[in-house]
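Most newcomers find our protein records easier to grasp once they have seen one. Sequence and backbone structure share a record, each on its own labelled line. Nothing more is needed to start thinking about how sequence determines fold. As an example, a complete record with its sequence and its structure tokens follows.
=====
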Amino acid sequence: MESINDVLKLILSFEQEEFFSLDEDQLCERESAFIDMEFVGLGINGPIEISCDRQESLPIVMALKYSGERDWTIDLKKNCFLVASNLRNGNVITARALTNDKDDFYSEEKDDSRGPVPSGVALEAVQLTVIEARDKIPLDWNAGTWSFSLIYFDWVSNTISVGFIGNDPMLPVQTPQIDPVPDTNDINTLPSYVSQPQTPKAPKEGLAFVLEAQKGDDKQILNLYAAYAVDPRSYQIPKPPKTCAFTSRQENVSAVIPLTILLLSKNDRHPIQIDVSVPVFGKPAEESKKQKGQCALNVLSAIGVKALKPGKYACYVVLDGVTYGPQILNILS
């Protein structure tokens, strides 16, 4: 079974300038090779660098291999989203990858089921598609770095980073404020930024998270527990140093890290997006020196709703440009 690295090397590997001039013949040739690979899933690639004064587009090539049954049950056009992260400030933007806002095939009372899978659907299919990121995302066309990934409901692609070379001066970015603010009377009350019994073990690098769903007397409870290890960027380190005073003790804030939670059900127009800024407690941080932290958040409280509609949901967390997940959640009526 080939891996995503094989797909990147054999199917999605192009010279830097080739990304800006790919035609149907080139894509069809790669599709013919892709169909023979023992790989199922989603991958992307694109140029590693953009010269803002010379190039006006940012093409991202998607390679997808899936079954006709999946295409029937999870419509690709309705459920594929581009996730873009501005690594200069932590902002995350999502957009439909294969359609635009003028496509009117959504309804408020959506039926997630298209009925039984018809006989004769393809056992497998492949697709190579060029997505013009600048048409989908309001990118800052100036010096900086952006990262990109695709989510196709409960599938996620690899992440790519693109450096932007521009002449305009880069304005300083302020350290984000902690959001949501913790309860200073109880360090363990959600939102909490210390380890809880449900918190997963922190990876050596990146993020791990779990969801915990409960049903209260008059509302649902959906909590997210995450642990992470990340190299803080300069703007994430408070200057001057900050502290967070609790009734029981005082914590040094070594860094404030932006996280984005994405929650989507089938055929949503857009994912539910929750942007938070979580503190890392500990000794003063240094840029590019690994910091470990954790957070526990009440997701529905952050959204401002008492309950999610019944259905299947996929949850992702974006940290430092990388999309982690999914965790699958089934909400019963």
